């Protein structure tokens, strides 16, 4: 099935964030993206409901092909009357079996509508699966980014802690005042506050991810992945060509087939069905028997199902408009996601190529010069803050890139091949 193939391809494409090598003992504590995706698909209640809907549609498909049941009737005439018709002396008993024969292709139209309904339910499940994969990948990227922020802030705290002995030596040598120790401690404690906020944000993201993969409480301590891998996305036209194959749009093929069959079914209702019967009659008065036959056809004098035909015609006609509206909405979402992805890619690439090297070089120069007395503590702290800000800015851009990439792959329903220029 096409939607299933695309969903599997999406899951493979989102492995853009590979897990680092870990020891077997700790592998159960580190969640990889592929593990998160498989658990999310296996546990999501929306997919379970979609599977049940396919089963229900299949049941309706089986029922649509059933023939009307034959009807068995028994009649007793000329009994329990007066005079010679007292009791059962002159009774006539009839046993008859009748069968309704549907005309006008009613059964075929009913079966076609049921088959199209099954296809539509399968496409709906495919769309739901893509959404689950995209939401899980986005949550994974946010969790990985929050984890990376914690590591960066921990490094910043350690770096500032290492300044304390150097400050102490400078004060003892008379090169700095004791107020610089308090200033350095203030910078360290401020960073510790940011670290506490970062850890809380990581725990919140971790808990959200655990809910998406069907866990009441997180069973993993960390997530494993390479947040730094990025690449230039394909053109917008390429993305839109793929988005038009999204199950949200392709399902309208099955919907249109279903509504066309419902129209044929409504038109067939104007053709009356025939009920034929054959029976056996016994005359108690002279103890004779006879065969009887019946044929009945309703006369379509008043009800030719015109209202039903009008309804089915209008419902079929609005399918194209519904698809056009869905495609327009999808175009807006793809365009918005594409622009966000391009912006995040450019921001991450430029920050990595230009801002971070300069900030790192400036900090190393000021730190080396501070030890030699050429820079003040304020200049050192400003250089360290600039480096931390650039690093955190890159992390935010990378998180935005991967979260938007997951959303865009969910909209297009396929893997995106990225340029390796910025890997």
TrEMBL record:
Signal sequence extent: 1-24
Keyword set includes Amino-acid biosynthesis: no
Residues spanning the membrane: none
Superkingdom assignment: Bacteria
Gene3D superfamilies named in the record: Outer membrane efflux proteins (OEP)
Keywords of the record: Signal
PANTHER family associated with the record: BLR4935 PROTEIN, OUTER MEMBRANE CATION EFFLUX PROTEIN
Family under the similarity heading: Belongs to the outer membrane factor (OMF) (TC 1.B.17) family.
This protein's name: TolC family protein
């Amino acid at each position: 099935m096409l939607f299933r193939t695309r969903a599997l391809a999406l899951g493979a494409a989102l492995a853009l964030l590979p897990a680092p090598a870990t020891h077997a003992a700790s592998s159960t504590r580190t969640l990889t993206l592929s593990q998160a995706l498989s658990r999310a698909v296996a546990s999501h209640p929306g997919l379970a409901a979609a599977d049940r809907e396919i089963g229900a549609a299949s049941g309706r498909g089986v029922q649509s092909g059933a023939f009307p049941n034959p009807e068995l009737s028994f009649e007793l005439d000329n009994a329990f009357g007066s005079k010679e018709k007292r009791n059962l002396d002159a009774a006539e008993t009839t046993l008859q079996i009748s069968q309704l024969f549907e005309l006008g292709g009613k059964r075929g139209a009913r079966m076609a509508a049921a088959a199209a309904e099954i296809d539509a339910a399968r496409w709906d499940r495919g769309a739901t699966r893509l959404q689950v994969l995209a939401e899980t990948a986005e949550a994974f990227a946010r969790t990985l980014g929050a984890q990376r922020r914690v590591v960066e802030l921990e490094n910043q705290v350690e770096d500032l802690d290492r300044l304390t002995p150097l400050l102490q030596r400078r004060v003892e040598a008379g090169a700095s005042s004791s107020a610089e120790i308090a200033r350095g401690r203030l910078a360290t404690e401020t960073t510790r506050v940011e670290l506490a906020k970062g850890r809380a944000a990581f725990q919140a993201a971790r808990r959200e991810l655990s809910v998406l993969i069907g866990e009441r409480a997180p069973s993993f301590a960390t997530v494993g992945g390479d947040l730094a891998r990025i690449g230039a996305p394909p053109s917008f036209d390429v993305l839109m060509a793929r988005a038009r194959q999204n199950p949200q749009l392709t399902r309208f093929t099955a919907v249109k087939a279903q509504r066309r069959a419902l129209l044929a079914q409504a038109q067939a209702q104007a053709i009356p069905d025939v009920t034929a019967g054959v029976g056996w009659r016994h005359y108690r008065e002279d103890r004779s028997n006879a065969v009887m036959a019946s044929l009945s056809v309703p006369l379509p004098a008043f009800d030719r199902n015109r209202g039903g035909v009008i309804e089915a015609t209008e419902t079929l006609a609005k399918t194209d408009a519904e698809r056009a509206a869905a495609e327009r909405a999808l175009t807006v979402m793809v365009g918005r996601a594409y622009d966000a992805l391009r912006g995040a890619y450019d921001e991450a690439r430029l920050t990595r190529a230009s801002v971070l090297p300069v900030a790192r070089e400036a900090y190393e120069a000021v730190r080396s010069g501070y030890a030699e007395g050429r820079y003040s503590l304020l200049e050192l702290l400003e250089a360290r803050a600039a480096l931390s800000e650039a690093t955190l800015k890159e992390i935010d851009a990378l998180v935005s890139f991967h979260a938007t990439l997951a959303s865009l792959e969910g909209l297009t329903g396929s893997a995106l091949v990225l340029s390796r220029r910025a890997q």
